[in-house]
């Protein structure tokens, strides 16, 4: 069975980034992202893909772009032209939607789970945002707070959401 998970780090105002870059540096969140996504397919928009210096190791990258001529030199990358086309490539496995803002908007109702790192801060100058989580549709199942420390200038909380229908079936 396929499991489609949106994974992101978003500020309290849902800010994700600016100029195709993150607004913070959270090493523990990077480690968590790597642990969760390694060995799986990751779905992203072209701009998110191009924000990496090279493909992330041990993951198949599915890049969504409207550009029919777009290609990449890396074998671990597959180029598609819609989110539905990307989802068709992840039957019977776990896959992660990793951004950007427009791909998250399209993926919210198609996803089974959200792994959100809520960064405790507001970033007014952001140009990319995570969609507002619809509490009628999603249920918060776990949360884990991470305080400011010597490696992290901001506190944050790991939040896991599942579709309410799925959560209620398992009660």
TrEMBL record:
<keyword id="KW-0521">NADP</keyword>
<dbReference type="InterPro" id="IPR012259">
    <property type="entry name" value="DHFR"/>
</dbReference>
<dbReference type="GO" id="GO:0046654">
    <property type="term" value="P:tetrahydrofolate biosynthetic process"/>
</dbReference>
<dbReference type="GO" id="GO:0046452">
    <property type="term" value="P:dihydrofolate metabolic process"/>
</dbReference>
<dbReference type="GO" id="GO:0006730">
    <property type="term" value="P:one-carbon metabolic process"/>
</dbReference>
<comment type="function">
    <text>Key enzyme in folate metabolism. Catalyzes an essential reaction for de novo glycine and purine synthesis, and for DNA precursor synthesis.</text>
</comment>
<dbReference type="Pfam" id="PF00186">
    <property type="entry name" value="DHFR_1"/>
</dbReference>
<dbReference type="InterPro" id="IPR001796">
    <property type="entry name" value="DHFR_dom"/>
</dbReference>
<keyword id="KW-0554">One-carbon metabolism</keyword>
<keyword id="KW-0560">Oxidoreductase</keyword>
<feature type="domain" description="DHFR">
    <location>
        <begin position="3"/>
        <end position="163"/>
    </location>
</feature>
<dbReference type="GO" id="GO:0005829">
    <property type="term" value="C:cytosol"/>
</dbReference>
<dbReference type="InterPro" id="IPR024072">
    <property type="entry name" value="DHFR-like_dom_sf"/>
</dbReference>
<protein>
    <recommendedName>
        <fullName>Dihydrofolate reductase</fullName>
        <ecNumber>1.5.1.3</ecNumber>
    </recommendedName>
</protein>
<comment type="similarity">
    <text>Belongs to the dihydrofolate reductase family.</text>
</comment>
<dbReference type="GO" id="GO:0050661">
    <property type="term" value="F:NADP binding"/>
</dbReference>
<comment type="pathway">
    <text>Cofactor biosynthesis; tetrahydrofolate biosynthesis; 5,6,7,8-tetrahydrofolate from 7,8-dihydrofolate: step 1/1.</text>
</comment>
<dbReference type="GO" id="GO:0004146">
    <property type="term" value="F:dihydrofolate reductase activity"/>
</dbReference>
<dbReference type="GO" id="GO:0046655">
    <property type="term" value="P:folic acid metabolic process"/>
</dbReference>
């Amino acid at each position: 069975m396929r499991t489609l998970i949106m994974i992101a780090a978003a500020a309290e105002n849902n800010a994700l980034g600016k100029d195709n870059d993150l607004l913070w540096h959270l090493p523990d969140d990077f480690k968590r992202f790597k642990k969760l996504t390694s060995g799986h397919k990751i779905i992203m928009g072209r701009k998110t893909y191009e924000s990496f210096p090279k493909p992330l190791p041990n993951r198949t990258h599915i890049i969504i772009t409207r550009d029919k001529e777009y290609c990449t030199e890396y074998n671990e990358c597959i180029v598609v032209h819609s989110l539905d086309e990307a989802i068709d490539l992840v039957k019977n496995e776990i896959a992660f939607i990793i951004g950007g803002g427009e791909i998250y908007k399209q993926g919210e109702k198609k996803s089974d789970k959200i792994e959100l790192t809520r960064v405790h801060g507001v970033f007014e100058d952001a140009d990319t945002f995570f969609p507002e989580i619809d509490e009628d549709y999603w249920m918060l199942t776990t949360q884990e707070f991470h305080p400011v420390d010597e490696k992290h200038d901001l506190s944050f909380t790991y939040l896991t959401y599942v579709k309410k229908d799925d959560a209620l079936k398992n009660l």
